[in-house]
Amino acid sequence: MSEAVRELTFKDYATDQEVRWCPGCGDYSILKAVHRALADAKADPANTVFVSGIGCSSRLPYYVETYGFHTIHGRAPAIATGVKLANPALDVWVITGDGDGLSIGGNHLLHALRRNVNLNILMLNNEIYGLTKGQYSPTSRIGTESPSSPHGSLDTPVQPGLFAIGAGATFIARAVDIDQKGLPVILNEARNHVGAAFVEILQNCIVYNADVFDDVVAKKTAADTQIHVVHGEPLVYGKARDKGLRLNPRTLALEAVTLGVDGVTEADILVHDETNPVLAQLLVTLRAPLPVAMGVIHRRQAPAFDQSFVEHKPAVRRQRVRQLLHKGNILDRR
Amino acid sequence: MRGCFDAEAQVANMGSESRSGKLSYVVRFAGDSGDGIQLQGQQFTMASALGGNDLATLPDFPAEIRAPAGTRYGVSAFQIHFGGERITSPGDTPDVLIAFNPAALVVNLPQLEPGALILVDEQAFTEQRLKRADLDRNPLEDSSLATFEVVRIDISRLTEEAVKPFGMGAKDSQRCKNFWALGLMLWMFDQPRDPTVAWIERRFANEALRNANLAALNAGHAYGETAELTRVLAQHPTPAAPLARAEYRTITGAEGVALGLLAAGELADTQVMFCSYPITPASSILHHLADLEDAGVSTFQAEDEIAAICAAIGASYAGRLGVTSSSGPGIALKTEAMGLAVAAELPLIIVNSQRAGPSTGMPTKTEQSDLYQAVYGRNGDTPIPVLATRSPGDCFDTTIEAVRIALRHMTPVMLLTDGYIANASELWPIPDIDHYPPIASTKPTENTEGSVFQRDPSTLGRVWAAPGDRRFVYRVGGIEKDIETGNISYDAANHQAMTDMRAAKVASVADFIPDQVIEQGSPGGLAVVAWGSTYGTLHQAVLESIRAGLDVAQIHLRHLNPLPGNLGELLGRFHTVLVPELNTGQLATLLRDRLLVRVAQLNKVTGQPFTVQEVRQAIQQHARPRLKEVRP
User: Which residues of chain A make contact with B295, given a CB cutoff of 8 A?
Assistant: First the structure.
């Protein structure tokens, strides 16, 4: 792009289309954070592409003033892979939900992550099917009552972060929809990662699964129910920053401890190493009564697929085509 | 391109038939699926081509990679029809059958006519292997082969002796016997050995293996020269075919599609991205392209069929030509994504190498039963252009034509080929890419401005802008969009307008394609109307019928949706229309649907191509004798 990009504000990343989510939906704040992140990164709209599948979350590209492709259910990672391979210079985002990404599209998400295609994948997890009117989703907790599970759902939910680790993801982060300060920062960490970046965003569906994450995100208790992990810093949390996580060598599990109690000192607290996949697995599966991990849980360097997908551009293509037409044994009857 | 035959030279050749009075021969190699039969056939094909023969081949093998040895269902065969005249079909009845074991003999016996030459590997007719082939008696010992010329050769032992100096044990030596038999066949038809020698030298890095295979080839050849079998096992040199002046090579359908994509990308000045998931019999296109990656085509092996078409659509969205390829079951999986490409108005090529269905069906056997799927098989009113290839060499031109349509109209295009075309070879005059006009697309130029949803009034193709272009930052998707702005629209009149536009776009393709021509014969009597890989056999059958005095003509369709604009009028000039197809009547339905014509059908779904005889019988049934011209 020869023309310099003028300074854009976060409002410039919004389209003129009326946003059609339910009033109070968590998607509004996620959209705002996306606009904010793009503005912070001074992203060039012409070189940015948002690809989505089907579902409430997948409408997001219509509201971002960049290139956008709203595709079919579950297939956004595959289409985004095609976009990225066709033009690796583009900044390609995938917007998906728990149903779109882990149910009908689980296969494509798996392969985008293990190939390490340089995509920024945002999974808006509300633990419910919103657009089809509230059936339980693959992340719904056991016993979720819904139109398709009136007596409570029976199946064990998939844990998005654990799925990503299993797929070999090189970047895994988690954030909360309403965190307008933290979310844009995490989005840009994902944007800057070379390889497939997976961000799980806990998103509140106000109509079909209202407040399902309250045990984690409620403002009053958040300091004790969340732990914001930072690479190289001790894993402490709590309003008074007096709680921490320690590895129990007998159970190979993390346990919560309080500084100053039972002789626990800062030296006992684990230091976050985002490059360690074993620690990432422990952190990503934390749940109450332990704090739920937020922030960049895992990040390591590995070659991105689109980088090794070398394009050969012969200087004289027509000559090369002519050669290939003549490949092999020739019977010359001229 | 097959019009390159030199008619005068063909007439001249009529007087110079070989000793045995035949201008062409049909040879069938048959053995276990692990015997290297296909390789043997391919090498014979190469030699025959370089020897100046025209040819057509029919590979016929089971889906299992190494089916249990000696069984009937494990028999792999390769048939080639070659010689000094124009050859369009692989031949109905082999003149020579080489059978490596009892199963290969009995499975192929029904195809032979009295007098055919059968070469068998005598050592393979043991009690145990007869049993494997469900035979109670040895056919070499009873009278069941009485009407044929049978030559029993101890191929296994002779091969073993030839390769012993290179340290091959009895078991390993069996893997060289295909080259031994190939050597004998090359001698028999006086074909050059050099191409196979060169191939073996390139192929085998291991010196012992290389030398053993060469020794087997040469031993088979020497056997023909020296053995006292001249009455039956005589040499049958074939004259060179009367070819027009050109450079020739052999080409399979899979190579034709691959090279066509390569050339089309260059003609359109567009990078091609080929996204595919392995499936028989389509995978060979992926293999060929993966090997040609340095000429403007990149390949991506996706995690499944759906991902493959989706990645191709993503590539098209990003300004490359996306291509995906599969066979019927895989095409079924891609259906929803095709609808997305139609809705988003993006170019895309979908290649379907058809095979026998339903479901998994018979993966290695050919059929033309995906025409309904191609023309009618999507949710919503979702028309796309459909083209079909008729022969391996024709794959090149039809692929270029498909790309031309996709880029001119901004639409997915379905290109139908089949397992037979994909694997079969023919002699192909190498085209000069400079003789093809450039392929135009709707990519924005420096002067293009406004919305990407402006459409060319004659083609209804929208502007093909890609991310990276600051002028056209836009959103699109599978939700119905406003016909002008592209924004989401559930407006009633708009959906009507968009549906009409999509239909008119595909209909408009007919304004750009050539009128349908009559392949041979003239109007009045019977028209044999068909599509796809039946072309060669139908050509031969109609030619023979015309020579026999019947009033019959051949019409072969490349464009199936839309049909050529003049087709209705053209068929109206015939008394009867006969549609032979390897399905239960899909083109027949399409013609009735689109043209309201009355058609008769000839259908076959055995997994095998038509024979010339079958078609001639049907023509006989429907055609009248040609009336002598009456002058007043």
Answer: 312, 314, 317, 320-321, 324
Whether pLDDT at B16 is above 80: no
Judged against a pLDDT cut of 70, whether residue B14 lies above it is answered with no
* 8 Å CB contact between A286 and A292: yes
Per residue in B498-520, pLDDT (tens digit) is 999 999 999 999 999 999 999 99
Using CA atoms, how far residue A85 sits from A118, B202, B234, B290, B308, in Å, is 9, 34, 58, 15, 13
Burial class (CB in 10 A: 0-12, 13-18, 19+), B423: buried
Give the amino acid at B461. Answer: G
Strands B574-581 and B559-561, bridge-based pairing: unpaired
User: Nearest residue on chain B to A49, judged by CA atoms?
Assistant: B467
CA A312/CA A59 separation, integer angstroms: 36
Interface contact flag, A107 B303, Cβ < 8 Å: yes
Contact by Cβ (8 Å): A60, A35: no
The answer to whether A36 contacts chain B (CB < 8 Å) is no
Q: Is B217 left (phi over 0), alpha (psi -120 to 50) or beta?
A: alpha
What DSSP element (H or E) covers A110? helix A106-115
What is the ipTM score, two decimals?
A: 0.97
Condensed to tens digits (0 to 9), the pLDDT of residues A204-252 reads 999 999 999 999 999 999 999 999 999 999 999 999 999 999 999 999 9
The alpha carbon of residue A152 is apart from the nearest alpha carbon of chain B, in Å, by 32
Burial grade of B316 (CB within 10 A; 0-12, 13-18, 19 or more):
buried
Tell me the fold of A3-212.
Answer: Rossmann fold (3.40.50)
Do strands B149-153 and B117-121 pair parallel, antiparallel, or not at all (unpaired)? parallel
pLDDT surpasses 50 at B11: no
Residue type, A64: V
Contact state of B340 with A72 under an 8 Å Cβ cutoff: yes
CB neighbours of residue B2 within 10 Å: 18
Question: Quick check: B619 contacting A, CB < 8 Å?
Answer: no
Place of tokens 């031994």: B180
Give me the residue spans of the domains in chain A.
3-212
DSSP codes joined into one string, B233-283? S-----PPP-BPSSEEEEEEHHHHHHHHHHHHHHHTT--EEEEE---TTTH
| B244 to chain A, closest Cα gap in Å | 7
pLDDT value of position B20: 57
**A11 at B interface, C-beta within 8 A:** no
The answer to whether residue A309 neighbours chain B at the CB level (below 8 Å) is yes
Q: Using the 8-state DSSP alphabet, how is residue A329 labeled? A: -
Note the pLDDT tens digit of each residue in B557-614.
999 999 999 999 999 999 999 999 999 999 999 999 999 999 999 999 999 999 999 9
Token pair in block for residue B298: 């990149």
Give yes or no for a contact between B422 and B354, defined as CB atoms under 8 angstroms apart.
no
